[in-house]
Structures are given as structure tokens and as C-alpha cells.
């Protein structure tokens, strides 16, 4: 699957993540997070057939997203933009592509967890229509022990993507 983003930056391109992308994914993951996923987690997601997208900017890895879908529910597991590419709309573009894929595969709602200490991500999810539905105590590792997760969800109505504001 390859999708061009003409609205924001002509050089953006999305395609299915492959195992051969994992070196680039891990390089971004380690720059972006103090507690990154392991290569094994990404590999297991790919082996399980989870929808996973790789974002390329000027044909270089710039971000990625991974979700699971079961029955009529999707779960956004990881959405990451390389730190040097953040705040340019690429994360929003990736998120919308994953929402479209979830809806196209029959999901009626999507869930995610986000750190309270990540206000940029919370603002992105909120602006795209996610609502906080709860908290998971001590969900994430943190420098001083554990950090709660904010649980957010969104209903994937037939016209959800079309009603979103332009990128």
C-alpha cells in the first residue's frame, strides 16, 4: 500500500512497513522515546499481520504507525514521527491513514493509550476526535517509576475521515 500526501508535503509517502525497515524504525524509536519498543515487539506485530505503515519523507524513513484490529475494534499501538520531522503534520497524516485502514477493515471504534506527559500527542488525538475514556494506572515505565496512561477512543463512523479538517 502506498499513499501520497499531496495536501501537506508532496515528498511524503506511506507504505506498508516491512521487516527490512526495522533498523530505521529502531533508530527513530530510540531518538523519540526514553523507553522505546524493542525490535522483537515490532517484528511480532509484523508477523501477526497487524496493519503497520512506514512514512517516508524524500524517500527516507520519517515515522511509522502500528495498530491491531480484532472483531470491530482497532487499537493504535504505536504512532511515531522522527523528532526532526515533528510538528509538520506527518503524525496527523499517518494517524488518518491508520484510521482509514481500520475503518476499511471493519473497525467501528479505535482505542489508544497516551502518556499524560505527552501534551503534543494528546492535542493531536483530541483534535482528530478522540475522547478520554479512562486511565490505566502505572501503565508506562518512567524515570521515577511508572506513569499512568490516558485511554482515548473514537467511534469510526462511515464519514469520520471525510469530516476531519484539512491537513
In words, what does this structure look like?
The chain has helices spanning 22-32, 39-47, 90-104, 119-127; strands spanning 2-4, 12-16, 52-57, 60-70, 73-81, 109-114, 131-142, 145-155. The protein is α+β, with helices and mostly antiparallel strands. The chain has a single domain (2-155), classed as Aminopeptidase (3-Layer(aba) Sandwich), CATH 3.40.630.30. Strand 7 (131-142) and strand 8 (145-155) form a beta hairpin. The chain is globular. Strands 1-2-3-4-5-6-8-7 form an eight-stranded mixed sheet, sandwiched between helices. The model is unreliable at 1-10 (pLDDT under 50). The longest helix is centred in the middle third of the chain and has 15 residues, at 90-104. The protein starts with a strand and ends in a 12-residue tail after the last strand.
Task: Report the sheet-strand fraction.
Answer: 35-45%
CATH architecture grouping: 3-Layer(aba) Sandwich
Number of strands: 8
Q: Helix count?
A: 4
Count of spatially separate domains: 1
Low-confidence stretches: 1-10
* Order of adjacent strands in the largest pleated sheet: 1-2-3-4-5-6-8-7
Question: How is the biggest beta sheet arranged?
Answer: 8 strands, mixed
- Rg, rounded, reads 15 Å
Do you know the CATH topology?
A: Aminopeptidase
Counting helices, strands and paired strands, the structural category is: alpha+beta
Compute the average pLDDT.
Answer: 90
Helices and strands, in N-to-C order?
EEHHEEEHEHEE
Amino acid at each position: 500500500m502506498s499513499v501520497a500526501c499531496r495536501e501537506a508535503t508532496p515528498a511524503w509517502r506511506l507504505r506498508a512497513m516491512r521487516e527490512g525497515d526495522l533498523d530505521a524504525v529502531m533508530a527513530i524509536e530510540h531518538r523519540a522515546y526514553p523507553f522505546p519498543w524493542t525490535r522483537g515487539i515490532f517484528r511480532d506485530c509484523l508477523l501477526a499481520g497487524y496493519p503497520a505503515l512506514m512514512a517516508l519523507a524524500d524517500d527516507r524513513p520519517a515515522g511509522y504507525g502500528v495498530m491491531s484490529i480484532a472483531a470491530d475494534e482497532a487499537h493504535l499501538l504505536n504512532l511515531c514521527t522522527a523528532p526532526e520531522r515533528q510538528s509538520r503534520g506527518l503524525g496527523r497524516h499517518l494517524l488518518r491513514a491508520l484510521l482509514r485502514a481500520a475503518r476499511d477493515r471493519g473497525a467501528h471504534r479505535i482505542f489508544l493509550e497516551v502518556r499524560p506527559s505527552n501534551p503534543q500527542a494528546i492535542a493531536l488525538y483530541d483534535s482528530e476526535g478522540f475522547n478520554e475514556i479512562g486511565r490505566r494506572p502505572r501503565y508506562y515505565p518512567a524515570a521515577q517509576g511508572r506513569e499512568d496512561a490516558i485511554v482515548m477512543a473514537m467511534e469510526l463512523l462511515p464519514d469520520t475521515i471525510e469530516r476531519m479538517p484539512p491537513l
